[in-house]
Amino acid sequence: MPPTVLIVEDTQSLAMLYQSYLLPTGVNTLVASDGATAIDIINKVHPDLIVLDVMLPDMNGLDILATLEPDNCPQVVVLTGHATKEMAIQAIKLGASDFLEKPIEADRFRITVNNALKIKNLKQAVTQYKNKYENGKYFDLIGSSKQMQSVYQIISSASVSKATVFITGESGTGKELCARAVHQASNRANQPFVALNCAAIPKDLIESEIFGHLKGAFTGAIANRVGAAGQANGGTLFLDELCEMDINLQSKLLRFIQTGSYQQVGSEKVVKVDVRFVCATNRDPLVEVENGRFREDLYYRLHVIPIELPPLRERGKDIIEIAEALFVKIAKDESHPYKEISEDVKQLLIQYSWPGNVRQLENVIRNVLVLNPEQYIDIDMIPALPENTKKTPERETINSTTQLMADTTFDLPNTQNNIKALWLAEKEYIEHVIKICSSNIPKAASLLDVSPSTLYRKIKSWEEIQ
């Protein structure tokens, strides 16, 4: 819908001239010849921009500017044939975005109006972003880290567009939640969001799942089926694990994306829909293209607005925010009396590498709540966490630490007087390993082949002895 510009000018010939200047821009224009009419139009229509003459027959134009509410204020360009420096300063202080002195050239007028409307759009986008992002949460996405702030900003910027969003990230990082946020932030939020996992559907059925089929089109087609594309009409179609799609079907998907049209299986009729595409994969799509498993033309058609979701291990204190939200959510599902987690638990959650990302974290939290009915979750309630086998910088650190330990020797007692209590010898050895691991207890636990909760319990018992 084109923006609306209200021209407040008491000289009819000038008002018509300004309207003619704006004809090439495609905006809607309204005219008011006095202040009272202008105020009435502003209250009823809420224009995007007001071109405001200062000298009006019934009032000063700056008085109108002063009455506009700052929270929902249109952009204002002030016009006058009697400009002074003081008047310009006053207009800017009252919220005007620009100040023009008559007579005004057509190009200068159009440029000023276009710039003011761009500022209006930018302000609206910022306001929408602030309203959607609150207390570390953006729709169903949680996290205040810089990485996630960047993701939120991309989604917010893309919300007004129909451009395809391509989400990449490790398994379990929340790609479907990200896709839903793209949908919820857009003007399609009230329309359907249809998700389709390309890896979970047999190769011979996926075309029917996307495009639908007619009764009798193949064995087992006992009724007509609309398909995901038809169900998503007017809304968003999310294709998860896209790189798993059969290479032969990719050509039909490309044609659908290019034209917005498709044919159901068993039909010659062309169906046209209005769909916004969001795709996701946990693979590197360019590697898939190089290996011939993903069409290059389809990749470039879909890879318009890329979003890369960071793994959980790189998101710092986001892990605590996500964990606390999951504890509350799952406790409600399980009717659990959960209140809070201890600082030791928080430290463990941050230090662990989470190879399964948010999905793994959620499973661990559900395990804790199901097996422990206590209100306060402590470190000894956390189950043993599997070692991360992925090749990450943390894995390299553990390997180098293992080598360092191999090069480290401990003096064994050679007389009875030098023999220490077993718990004390164990304490010194464990503390030495923790020091080598830069106080990262999950790393130390991995090297010692015990669970982090075991080390936390031992450390706590030593404190009680001392």
TrEMBL record:
CDD domains named among the record's database cross-references: AAA
Residues modified to 4-aspartylphosphate: D53
SUPFAM superfamilies membership: CheY-like, Homeodomain-like, P-loop containing nucleoside triphosphate hydrolases
Domain Response regulatory: from-to ranges: 4-117
Domain (Sigma-54 factor interaction) ranges: 141-370
Keywords: ATP-binding, DNA-binding, Nucleotide-binding, Phosphoprotein, Transcription, Transcription regulation
One family name in Pfam for this protein: HTH_8
Domain of life: Bacteria
InterPro entries in UniProt: AAA+_ATPase (IPR003593), AAA_lid_NorR (IPR058031), CheY-like_superfamily (IPR011006), Homeodomain-like_sf (IPR009057), HTH_Fis (IPR002197), P-loop_NTPase (IPR027417), Sig_transdc_resp-reg_receiver (IPR001789), Sigma_54_int (IPR002078)
Full protein name: Two-component system, repressor protein LuxO
Source organism: Pseudoalteromonas aliena SW19
Gene giving rise to this polypeptide: luxO
